[in-house]
Design brief:
mainly alpha
Length: 70
């Protein structure tokens, strides 16, 4: 996008680093949550976690990334 054209490589690196950390730590965290909350509690926990992350994305991602392209 035109907003992050200069820093695109750095931002892609951050995204890939976060995805890698999620793939490494995800199974351990999920098994601990499952051991504590069992099946339905695990679904509710990660559902709430997804709602929180979607809200944070809505708040912090700029509304118009391609303003100068239009």
């Amino acid at each position: 996008t035109s907003m992050f054209a200069d820093d695109i490589v750095r931002h892609i690196t951050y995204i890939e680093m976060i995805v890698g950390m999620g793939l490494i730590t995800g199974p351990a965290v999920a098994s601990m949550v499952y051991g504590t909350l069992h099946y339905s509690g695990t679904m509710y926990f990660f559902g709430v976690l997804n709602m929180i992350s979607m809200t944070l994305c809505y708040i912090f991602i700029p509304n118009e990334l391609n303003n100068s392209a239009a």
